Amino acid sequence: MSEIVTAAMVVIGDEILSGRTKDRNIGHLADMLTAVGIDLREARVVADDQEAIVEAVNTLRARNTYVFTTGGIGPTHDDITADAIAAAFGVPCGYDPEAYRLLEEHFARRGIEFSEARKRMARMPEGAAHIANPISVAPGFSIGNVYVMAGVPAIFQAMLDSVIPGLKTGAKLISVAVPSPLPEGTIGGPLGDIQKAHGETIIGSYPKYEDGRFWTEIVIRSRSEEALKAAKNAVEEMLEALLKRN
What we know:
Elements: E1 5-12, H1 14-18, H2 25-35, E2 38-46, H3 50-63, E3 66-70, H4 81-89, E4 93-95, H5 97-109, H6 116-119, E5 123-125, E6 129-131, E7 140-143, E8 146-149, H7 153-163, E9 174-180, H8 184-197, E10 201-210, E11 213-222, H9 225-245
Parallel strand pairs: 1-2, 1-3, 3-8
Antiparallel strand pairs: 4-5, 6-7, 7-8, 9-11, 10-11
Helix pairs in contact: 3-4, 8-9
């Protein structure tokens, strides 16, 4: 079986925590990673605070194959992600010559002043590699197993599209859904026993309400088709037995 590849995400910004901005990047990242066989194991939202960013990045990069960050690489005073990532890796942060050139030429073409604030978008940790930004030019960057990208969803998505093909991928999860007319309270105990007996699977139950009735969707996930089938059979047998009693 292929290696399991894991990822975590750090969403950076006071505006997310205050509710002024609604995050749209976690779901997109989860969809994209799941499609290529990478498990998104954790997502954290942290303030524009260097100590908080450093702690989150260092903790998550130590226990995951990849870490993705969004937000905090713009031109304003509170965009401190580049400095925080440099601190996390213990390297200097300064103007990247190629990023500086790209931005200088971009603003010159548009007849806009390349101000000190705009120059901040060219700052990266020493040794970082660029992540292309086809929308607004200012690049993201990667260092070690950490990928640092913009928070604006359209730009984040474009950057991620360029990153995904270069990532190591793992065995993809396959899944099957089994509908249950019985509520979670009735199936919870037996379902827990099935999960213990089928360790190669992940079994979840999700209450539903449709057309005036309650029911439960049981979703079984696994990287093994054989294990998935065995667990599905066990769930169906359990439901049949419970329905005969009720």
